[in-house]
Design brief:
The protein is α+β, with helices and mostly antiparallel strands and 148 residues long. Helix content is 16%, strand content 34%. Strand 4 and strand 5 form a beta hairpin.
Length: 148
């Protein structure tokens, strides 16, 4: 079983320690593009170590991405049968400030279930992310499940 990667940075710091925050605003005037903002709490010229520059690059890439392609494994278990499916799906990109598990339930959980013939049977459902694009590699290995 794969181990989920660490959460992405939503903030990083310049060489002097000033905090840098990257955000994306989708709530804009109709027809306008989303806004990706980089804010520094000190107003200084931003100078980064290579590691921090890499963090900032990934933060900007994630904020600029609208949708991502992920491969998921869905397991549906019923008292009399179990089913496993692998799907390639395109979903809205999660934001760094967003809870990863809430995002999974909102956008990936819909792929669970085997249809009306199993609608009244008790079941266990699980969704696992098998692959994701590089700026979102921290999602690989994450799972959500429920019982009902």
């Amino acid at each position: 079983m794969s181990t989920p990667h660490t959460s992405p940075a939503t903030t990083t710091a310049t060489r002097s320690g000033a905090r840098v925050v990257v955000t994306r605003t989708d709530d804009v005037i109709a027809g306008a593009e989303p806004i990706v903002s980089v804010m520094v709490d000190s107003g200084e010229i931003m100078a980064f170590t290579p590691t921090t520059a890499g963090d900032l690059s990934a933060m900007l890439a994630r904020a600029a991405t609208d949708t991502i392609a992920v491969k998921i494994r869905v397991t549906n278990s019923y008292p009399e049968a179990a089913f496993e499916h692998v799907y390639d799906v395109i979903v809205p990109a999660p934001r760094d400030h967003e809870d990863r598990f809430d995002w999974m339930y909102d956008h990936l959980y819909e792929y669970t279930g085997e249809g009306p013939e199993y609608a009244s049977a008790p079941a266990a459902y699980e969704v696992e992310i098998l692959s994701a694009p590089e700026p979102f590699a921290h999602l690989i290995g994450l799972k959500v499940d429920s019982y009902g």
